[in-house]
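stuck on this one:
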Amino acid sequence: MKFLVLGASGFIGKNLVRSLALEQDNTVVAFSRKGQVEFADRNNISVVNGDFLKLSSPWKLLEGVDVVYYLIATSKPSCTNLDIAAEMTDLVRPTDVFLRACVDQGVSKVIFISSGGTVYGKDQTPPFNELMREQPINAYGIQKVQIEKMLYLYNYLYGLDYNIVRLANPFGPGQDPAGNLGVVTTFIYKAITGEEAIVYGNGDIVRDYIYIDDVIRSLRKLELYSGEYRLFNLGSGSPRSIIDIIQSIEHALSTRLSIKYVDGRKSDVPVNYLDVSRFTSCFGYPASTSFEKGISLTAEYLRNQTVKQGGLYE
């Protein structure tokens, strides 16, 4: 099969491209706007650099592509609501052009990575299931919902096959601990380096966390899926507060984290965790890696990176 991964330089994208390329019969087009993306010189990966928002003619990019993984977003949950109008509209027109090209080029399926952490909002009782209303309280969540609805429309109008994955919070090797996403990976790195970890609010924000290898294995189950469901939650289904995370890291790594508490953020949903029973009924329970094992594996990866980079993570 031939795959196109939009957002290939991101945390999920890099891990996904590597997984796809391990099967020699696959060819993978890795699309990214962040410059050259390295994939260990595999001859079945081609890297295309570009800006999706300026991609006026995506037809050539989609030649021969069977499955598209759409992992692009123009904002992040922690930085959202700064320019609400732009965050809500930036992706609408280029996504419309792109989906039209998918129809024209005969793409078999689009798999869109949405947000389990933002689309359900804060006024419903978790665990959130796929039948609940979308009530995002930030522009990032609204952006995700807009693309979900566009996929529905393109299926209705033109028969374009798709699946939507409302993903919980992934963590693990390949995630930048200095970035704006990934509290688990960031806190593991802080524990290793002895740096201070920042906690917004009092640490009682609750989320659902899933190890990256489990995410990739689960996403790939959708490539040939032809069942009744278009939408799946993907996570562990288990709630963990920030305080729980800190305690788990301290226990797994036999260390103490230095914590600084600062004011909470209005864009943060207080409690969010997912009902993953639909996914489990179709494919089996997605989170086969325990949270503690994921912490240990991530810590091992980060330690190796700091040694390789002379003490600095890159």
Observations:
- The chain has two domains: 2-169+211-234, 171-208+238-272+289-308.
- The longest strand covers residues 109-115.
- Confidence is low (pLDDT under 50) at residues 310-314.
- The domain at 171-208+238-272+289-308 is CATH 3.90.25.10 (UDP-galactose 4-epimerase; domain 1).
